[in-house]
What we know:
5 domains, four-stranded antiparallel beta sheet, seven-stranded antiparallel beta sheet, 23 strands, alpha+beta, 47% helix
Amino acid sequence: MKNNPPKPLSLFEQFRQKIEAMPKLQTEESLTLRILVQGLVIIGIIATDVAAQTQMSLWAIPLSIAGSTWSWYRRKHRNITVKFFLAIAMLGVLFFFLINLAQSLNDSRLALGGLLVQLQVLHSFDLPRRKDLGYSMVIGLILLGVAGTISQTLAFAPWLLLFLGLAIPTLILDYRSRLGLEAIDSSLNLPFRSPRASNSVITYSPFSLKKLGLIIGLTLVLGLTIFMLMPRFPGYQLQTFPVSSPLDADSQKFNGQNNGIINPGYTNKEQGKNSGGQGTSPTEGEGKLDNNYYYGFNTKINQNLRGNMTPKIVMRVRSQAPGFWKALSFDHYTGQGWEISNDQDLNMIQRDPWSYKFFLSSPATRMKTKQVIQSYTAVTDLPNVIPSLSIPNSLYFPAKEIGIDQRGNLRSPVGLIEGLTYTVISEVPYRDRTILRTSPYEYPEKIIKNYLQIPPEIEEKVRQKTLELLAKSPNPINSTYEAALFLTQTVKQQYQIKPDLPFFDENEDLVTAFLFKHEGGYPDHFSTVLTMMLRSIGIPARLTVGFGQGKFNPFTGFYVVKNTDAYGLTEVYFTKFGWYSFDPIPGHELIPPSLEEEQTFGVLKQFWNWIASWLPSPVSSFFNIIWTQIIGGFINILVWLWRFISGSLIGVFVGLFLGVGLGLLGWLGWGQLSKLGYYRRLAKLPPIVRLYQEMLELLKSKGYPKHPAQTPLEYVEVSYQQHPQEQAAIIEELSQAYVSWRYGENSQNFDYLQQQFKALVKSLKGRKSDE
């Protein structure tokens, strides 16, 4: 009977046989390592959740734990079907990630964090090898990094410390696995016998609390030291800036009823025109200051209010330079406050249809400017004014249009809701005192019309008081800038803040009451008085309100701004150069912080200020001199050098040349220092020991090092195989002399041994030349 040929296998059967023929994976058997890796992943997910204020951990953590548990019990199986479905699921995750990315092009960090979390959940169902666990460790680390970039507070810092505490023992177990050492998951103790006592047993644990605590402590100290010394070079490397999700579609545009400013701190008597609020502050007459909202954010402000705000955080700002976050400028003085003329006359600006960018006007100044990027996040609901550094050039805002009035004030269609984020690019002018002195006294007609207004009944009285103060200047005042600066200093020093100031009468003027009756007033009254004094002598000025820079948090990089940081200051117009701020409020700097306050080593300076506060005054003064003169000069040189290197192509080449040169000098210097240290150590040794060590160093330099585990005589045996008979005999003679002196305490002929060593040196040199 004829044998039938075997039936050919189908493609599926061939594929299955190939899979079964493949060698089995080398699985990771350490349950402890798996648990620690899962802990790192969980910490990364929670930290991202905390930083982004999302709820990913509610579903991701239990699923990830379930997947890791399933992987442990199925680690020795091929799990082909599961891998197939996981691959399909990952493609689905990628698809949804691309959709989310398209919807959040303004800030893709959260979308990336969500993608990593989803991939980790799927990945947790297939963790047979140590390499697979390594991927999970990396994902946990990346998630922690994403949390660090998203977080605006230190809320994720405890999770960072916890991650560090788990990461170190995880890396220890991972390294043991790489070395192929047997995993110990029960006691985690490695017993071995002491070489000195045959019956004693010493146990070693990679999880020794003492050693782990020491390593974690050293890591924290080193990390904080590097963080403190690291320079903060400002600059966004990307051109997509943080912006929150778009506002409600119905509130992205202005209409006839919302062109004004909505400040919830004012009462609702003027509902529909100015305030629209439910607060305690009236827009006219006596009243109580609202506890939560600064009264200055309105089209009409009342400075006959009394009381104080309850401090609370309202904004967080990340900026390349500190400054006064300007919100509104006022032109018309009412006698007891200010108002914006033609407040409904807004220029509506539409944003770019492909992005969140609004193009604003370019700065009208001849002064040199610098681009400063700021990102603002509202922590609580705020009025619909948009704070920014002067002069805003571009705005990234989550609305279809914004309004800008004739004074450059920016308005949103609705209030800045909690969580809203926007970014401003400002062309901030430098403040060059020498150049500003040259500003002419002639002013454009528009400036004269809007910013020299003063009530006729007080004009002459205020002018006479202003001239009287200017006459006290020890130096002649011959420029607008010097007049404004001297008046600011004089008002700050000569008048006092009056926390118990009584209400003004119905027809009483704030400025005259401040100057001639109370000799002081509330903080914002100082700026109003200075503004009117400057106007009285023909210098255009206006009142501008906004937020002070707030308190800088060096760990997050954000300025934390409170409602109590809001105040008003005076802006003075300089022909050809624009508006510049002066702050007459006692306790404030004469000039608000700006580009000049940018500190590359600001964290280090803050740390020094904290240390100096604990030192006696003479000691701190001495170290302050060292800091400002020596360390400060060195830091300035480093900053200048970095700006030169990073500022042009020539600077890059010069930087490379300097880097190579300094590296070469450092290498040569380190070599010389090492030799010097070696010879100093030799000089402290006994003559025989020194001679033996010199021989070992000589042989090592020739390529014949002595292994630390070798005894001197074992090294001699090897030397007979590596060297000629004559050289090996000298090596043996010197080694025998060393052993005899060291362990037998026998005296040696040092002069003879030294001659033998010189003969060995000469012989090795001759051998090298022959080769």
